[in-house]
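User: Study the chain.
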Amino acid sequence: MSEPNGDRGHLLTERSNPASEALDRLPTADLVELFCANDLLPQQAVAAAAPALTAAIDAIAARLGAGGRLFYLGAGTSGRLGVLDAAECPPTFCSPPEQVQGVLAGGAAALLRSSEGLEDLHQAGRDDLLARGFSATDALVGIAAGGTTPYVLGGLDHGRAIGALTVAMACVPADQAAMPCDIDIRLLTGPELLTGSTRLKAGTATKMALNILSTGVMVRLGKVFGNRMVDVAVTNSKLEDRALRILRDLAGLPRTQAQELLQQARGSVRLALLMAASGLEAQAARDALERHGPGLRQALDALAVSLPAAPRSR
């Protein structure tokens, strides 16, 4: 498939915004006010895409629950946002680094130095996925603000051809730029205040949508109990303090006892919580999680025990 080399002026993300036609002449206070007003639009765009986000979360969680992986594929700002979201999953959810991966046109070097020319290579999207071992069991989210990036379209074409789950994320209507996918997420933020600069509203909406997507998937995978990150990786003092507060708030443990239990659980908050609720030793609690989990709630229910300080379900 070749790059559509025609005029992209019809794309929503490339149109001129009448509200900012005199942007260079505005007093600074008025410029800031204009940006603040426009930055309400990404929230509305994400809310309008809720049905597609819902479908994507459930479909991706099913793939990951069966042993598959999630790949974000993009170029420029879109790709960097995917890499950012993927990088935040292991420390937040203690997920394996390979479970959620960000694939950026140009690789790691493009994180710091733009490599826009690489996004024009349709075959490169497929090649970069193949290099990661991308397979039919995996899920792919192709991110392209304008919906026309050949690198992303090539990856989505490949994903569909091999039977992987394919999700498209763009900031233009589907009738302006069709993308090959199973689930189509459209974040319609309108023309940018700086014409064509999709790092602005389009980038903001994309970041918001990825936040919802990855968090929702991890909730469905049992990485969250209530609204607590019970699989948080305890890798520094801040995260240790958070873990101890979770044990205090959910299990009613004083800090010293919480520290002892967390040490026995080798830093696993989820395991420490199950030990606190059940009275099981670390290995027995670990076995129970493997049998009844992966989520803490499923294990608690299977053992017919509860956390004394946890809020009850409504």
Remarks:
- Residues 201-220 form the longest helix (20 residues).
